[in-house]
Design brief:
The complex is a heterodimer of chains A (about 300) and B (about 350). By secondary structure, chain A is an all-alpha fold. In chain A, about 70% of the residues lie in helices and about 0% in strands. Chain A is built from 13 helices and no strands. Chain A has helices at about 1-10, 20-30, 30-55, 85-90, 95-120, 120-135, 140-150, 155-180, 185-190, 195-205, 210-235, 245-250, 260-295. Chain A is elongated. Chain B contains 14 helices and no strands. Chain B has helices at about 5-10, 25-50, 55-60, 70-75, 85-95, 110-145, 150-165, 165-180, 200-230, 235-240, 245-285, 290-300, 305-330, 335. In chain B, helix 6 (about 110-145) packs antiparallel against helix 11, helix 7 (about 150-165) packs across helix 9 and helix 11 packs parallel to helix 12. The two termini of chain B are about 30 Å apart. Classes of the chains: A mainly alpha (about 300), B mainly alpha (about 350).
Chain lengths: ~300, ~350
């Protein structure tokens, strides 16, 4: 009996393709992938290297409030006379770390519940998807704000709030991808072997969801940056003295006429970051559409042939 | 009765007797029922989240330095000393009868804070949504007709860049360009005199509306383009072309009606997006709408106002989804006939 099933499994290979590294490599070879990666790399470099090369303390007042650029402060002073350049250099890494953590949390939670709903069907599916429907009855930022108002505006609770607000959207996408994979022969074959359902979900289905998973990670990372920068801008997230690009734009906009750099530089960095993230995500989406078509038709299609994701 | 019509009525097959309700009616009834259930669950979640869950709302509001007497007084004011079901009942009852309680921040009735704000936000969302829809659909059709032209590629790249920008970055850019540093032709903040409404001072609306239009148009354009490209590639458009019909007629009579359903879904999503987008945009421009009220309420942990606004936004979501579904159904002839 076991031999017959083994043969079946051997004859029906899984739809596994390339994997993470191959998709990333192909995405990075597209022109827009290169642009996206370049922008992301630039901003991440500023955020990571910045704290080590900042000329002044990010919280010390060294010039007059909203003083223009001078030799002492190249980008001028902010609302409290702190060095704008040092705050810009110091204000990125927390934002990036928060966005990455919220993305990881939201994608993990959404993927787990999406796969469970799509594969187990029946009652678990009903419960999960009705919950998702209800949670999608709020704008995502409002959902995050509601959670922040309960949990309190601290860094980790903001990450938790934003991560939770991603989960329903991810769950919906992963569920429909799971429905598609569950119908494939290799899953049916593994079921016939009597493999536990939990193992089928983690070892057969999850590895075949690499394409939608990577697109979701990219999308959610972009939205995490937008929402967390937005929450910081609104005054929730890091507490005030912290140098954070979102907070900087808000606290310095009253001095826009005196020293625009205190607003313009963090705004440009946030813009480059989100544009980079979404452009690279678009490249990944095009590559995965191309790969999936190859897998289905056997024909080699140019990765750029995909429509809008 | 002329001979022709008599003949026609003789020849026409008898109309099938509609035993089931008309599909459109059935869909509306179904969706409204589902919407009511969703809203009810949402109300339970909002209530549970802001009142029942986190230790106690009174401690959250007053902080840890509050005296037991102060805590007790606030708990009584919030009815926290009563059973949870009782609390939910009086809260939802108050909202349904139009008395959603008093603000914790300043003691004013919640509705006197939220009511005028709703009107202002509605104006903002409606004006932005309508302008964005017209501009977005027009650009999308043009991009589809001139597929692979310079315009198509440029709009694709621009859309990718602009869609991902946070609203406040777009808003700040507009303020820098038009209200402070570069030119100073428009007000940077929409400070409306108390008691006046948004539509009374259109100048104050320009920048908030422009921000929302800029962040929503790219998405509408790309989705309209995709729907139109598909419609233009269909057999019936090919047929119309072979018959030698003029391009404009093909576009308006043959292609566009078949792209309506997906486009309506996109416009629905846009209005849903606007409901969240106004929060940041209103805050940037100090526009007195529910977005700004929500931010203030979250800052002050003003629980009754948060509950009211979140419930209103959820209601708007449910309503827009129903409208989008019904319009999409009406736009798909084969689905609206009784079966």
């Amino acid at each position: 009996m076991a031999t017959a099933s083994d043969v079946t499994v051997a004859v029906l290979p899984a739809r596994r393709h390339g994997g993470w590294a191959a998709i990333l490599r192909r995405a990075a070879s597209l022109p827009r992938g290169r642009v996206g990666l370049g922008l992301l790399g630039l901003v991440v470099a500023v955020a990571v290297v910045g704290p080590f090369v900042a000329p002044h303390s990010a919280t010390a007042s060294i010039v007059a409030p909203f003083a223009g650029p001078s030799r002492q402060a190249i980008l001028g002073g902010d609302v409290l006379g702190r060095d704008v350049l040092s705050r810009v250099l110091d204000g990125g890494w927390v934002l990036l770390a928060m966005a990455a953590a919220a993305t990881a949390l939201g994608v993990a939670l959404g993927t787990a519940s999406g796969i469970a709903a799509g594969y187990l069907q029946g009652r678990p599916d009903g419960i999960i998807m009705r919950t998702v429907d209800v949670l999608l009855a709020f704008p995502q930022l409002v959902f995050a704000l509601l959670l922040v108002s309960i949990l309190g505006p601290t860094v980790w609770l903001t990450v938790l709030a934003v991560g939770l607000s991603h989960a329903p959207q991810v769950a919906r996408v992963m569920r429909s991808a799971t429905l598609d994979v569950s119908e494939r022969d290799f899953v049916k074959a593994t079921e016939l072997l009597g493999v536990k359902r939990r193992r089928i979900m983690t070892e057969e289905i999850l590895p075949n969801l690499v394409s939608p998973l990577m697109v979701e990670i990219g999308l959610r990372l972009t939205y995490s940056i937008v929402i967390i920068a937005g929450l910081s801008f609104l005054g929730f997230g890091q507490p005030p003295p912290a140098p954070n690009w979102g907070i900087m734009i808000n606290e310095n906009r009253q001095g826009l006429v005196l020293n625009p750099w205190a607003v313009v530089v963090p705004a440009i960095l946030i813009a480059l970051l989100t544009i980079g993230a979404s452009t690279f995500t678009d490249a990944v989406a095009r590559v995965t559409i191309g790969i999936d078509r190859e897998a289905e038709t056997g024909a080699v299609l140019a990765p750029a042939a995909g429509e809008e994701p | 009765m002329s001979l022709n019509t008599a003949l026609a009525s003789d020849v026409a097959p008898p109309r099938p007797r509609a035993t089931a309700p008309h599909p459109v009616t059935r869909l509306i009834v179904q969706r409204v029922a589902l919407g009511v259930v969703t809203l009810w669950v949402v109300s339970v979640i909002i209530f549970a989240a802001t009142v029942a869950l986190p230790g106690n709302a009174a401690t959250a509001i007053l902080g840890h330095s509050a005296t037991p007497a102060q805590l007790h007084a606030l708990e009584a004011q919030l009815h926290l000393n009563r059973p949870v079901f009782d609390q939910y009942g009086s809260w939802i009852g108050g909202i349904l009868t139009g008395h959603p309680g008093k603000s914790l921040a300043n003691g004013m009735p919640v509705w006197s804070i939220v009511g005028p704000a709703v009107l202002n936000s509605a104006v903002l969302v409606a004006v932005s949504g309508i302008i964005a829809s017209i501009v977005g659909v027009t650009l999308g059709v043009v991009a589809a007709v001139r597929k692979d032209s310079l315009f198509d590629h440029a709009s694709s790249v621009l859309a990718l860049a602009v869609t991902s920008l946070p609203e406040f970055v777009v808003a700040i850019t507009l303020i820098i360009l038009f209200a402070t540093v570069v030119w100073h032709v428009l007000p940077a903040v929409s400070l409306l005199a108390p008691g006046t409404h948004a539509w009374a001072s259109p100048r104050e609306l320009i920048l908030p509306v422009a921000t929302l239009v800029i962040v929503t148009v790219p998405y509408i354009t790309r989705m309209t383009r995709a729907a139109m490209v598909e419609a233009l590639a269909s057999d019936y458009v090919e047929m119309a072309r072979l018959k030698g019909l003029p391009t404009r007629r093909i576009l308006v009579v043959h292609a566009l009606p078949n792209a309506v359903a997906p486009v309506v879904q996109v416009l629905g999503l846009t209005f849903l997006y606007l409901a969240g987008g106004i929060v940041v945009v209103e805050y940037v421009f100090a526009f007195p709408g529910i977005g700004e009220s929500l931010v203030n309420a979250v800052t002050n942990r003003d629980v009754p106002v948060i509950q009211m606004i979140v419930l209103l936004l959820a209601g708007f979501y449910v309503l827009v989804n129903i409208i989008a579904d019904v319009v999409a159904l009406l736009a798909t002839p084969r689905r609206r006939l009784p079966r």
